[in-house]
Amino acid sequence: MLTERQIKYLKVTGQPFRFRDNNGTGFGVQVSAKGAKNYFLCYRFAGVKRFYNIGKVGDISLGDARTKSEAIRQQVREGIDPQQKRDETIKATVKAKREQTQKATVADLFDDYVNALKAAKKRSAEGVRYLLDQAANELDGKRKACEVEKTDISEFIKTKAKSAGTMANRLHQAIRAAFQFGIEADETSHTKRYALPGNPAAFKKQFEEKARDRCLTAEQLRLLWNSLATASFSAPIQAVIKLVLACAGCRIQEAVNARWDEFDFSPRNDIQGWHGAWRIPAGRTKNDKGNIFPLTATAAEAVQSMRDANHISAFVFASPNDAAAPLAWRSVNQALRRWSIRHDVPDFQARDLRRTCKTMLADYLEADEGLMARLHGHALTRIDQKVYNQAKYMRPKFLLLQRWVHWLDELPAQSNVKPIRKRA
Question: At what angle do helices 125-139 and 165-187 cross, to 10 degrees?
Fold first, then answer.
């Protein structure tokens, strides 16, 4: 019978060969042309000679290999073809694995896509999450992603378009991108987690979009500004709204994602009333160029009011549920919607604050259009503005914000709001 010593010293001949026990059991060792050694069992089933690979020498001991060969021979005596049984087991395992990978649901696909956006530090991640949450509810998030059909998505989008064409287009874009992500992920993976036969949202359908033009009146803005001094809002939402308004309409997403390291509260002796600067990095602005807001006393107070509550968080306005995450802009939007219902201010959203501030700056303070563009971080169009003129305009921007905050502070006492003309 074969011994471990014999097996160890079997020489490589450059040709494959087999070395068997001399007891007629069919058990032995096969040596490949390159020297790889495997235990095997030779048997006959239905008159056909077969070789069963038991395992690699070194991965399995000689004793265990003999035990396994005896179990295989017992299957033959019972009329079972061991080789066929193993093949069937392998096929069943592969099939089960394939079926398992196809169980990635719509919710799984959407979650994976949003997480990929977050990993890539895409500013759109939160907005896409909001859209896909709606889609998951309508498309049944527990359903397999590979079972979703074109008609499922098109009917959902058509229904949404009846009341909001713009939202329908944004939903369609988000769903299409998520399914495309799944297809591309499967192309680079062996597991085929989604097993998508195609992109069910890859159809061309564009609904009419109506640009939003909602702008508060001066009286409605007075109501909102006055409400910030009451208990109408929670502390973080009150501070966010106050910062947005004090900065004459910075983007709501820029405000809720503000970090402590973006603020410098150092004074400037050359500018009276200067309370610091908020430097938004390029990665967080819409035009990817960054922006700087000079801080008035009101803006600085809004930020500093969060110091005790969020001192352990990197975010000025941290989520109440997770200090490592920022306050969701939807929370601000929902709070403003509730406020608008209580005060009979129709159809008002958080993003309308920016439009309102710009309109009031022009109508009541007669602010220069170019200075407002620089203040709000809009893309400059003239070649001399965007290429040659690299000035930051800190003093003019600060003086404009001072006049703006002063105008806001005077609103509660005014019965008839009148334009404030520029000082000579």
Answer: 90
Query: What letter would DSSP give residue 140?
Result: T
**Where residue 421 falls among pLDDT bands split at 50, 70, 90?**
very low
For the chain, the 3-state helix, strand and coil shares in percent, each to the nearest 5, are: 50, 10, 40
Q: What is the mean pLDDT of the chain?
A: 86
Are the beta carbons of 404 and 372 closer than 8 angstroms?
Answer: no
CB 363 within 8 A of CB 377: no
Angle between helices 394-410 and 352-364 (to 10 degrees): 90
Q: Which residue type occupies 302? A: A
Q: Is 93 exposed, middle or buried (0-12, 13-18, 19+ CB in 10 A)?
A: exposed
How far from 106 is each of 198, 229, 322, CA to CA, in Å? 14, 44, 26
Distance CA 407, CA 356 (A): 14
User: What pLDDT shows up at residue 419?
Assistant: 47
Please state, in angstroms and rounded to a whole number, the distance separating the CA atoms of residues 198 and 257.
36
The Cα–Cα gap between 269 and 326 comes to 33
> Which pTM was predicted?
0.60
C-beta of residue 124 within 8 angstroms of C-beta of residue 139: no
| Token couple for 261 | 């390291």
Q: Tens of pLDDT along 227-285?
A: 887 767 889 999 999 999 999 999 998 999 999 999 999 988 888 989 999 999 887 88
What are the tokens at 19? 């070395």
Q: Please check whether residue 262 is in contact with residue 340, taking contact to mean a CB–CB distance below 8 angstroms.
A: no
Render pLDDT for 387-416 as a digit per residue (tens, 0 to 9): 434 456 899 999 999 999 999 988 755 444
pLDDT digits (tens, 9 = 90+) for 320-379: 888 888 898 889 999 999 999 988 988 888 889 999 999 999 999 999 888 898 898 876
Cα separation of 64 and 71, whole Å? Answer: 11
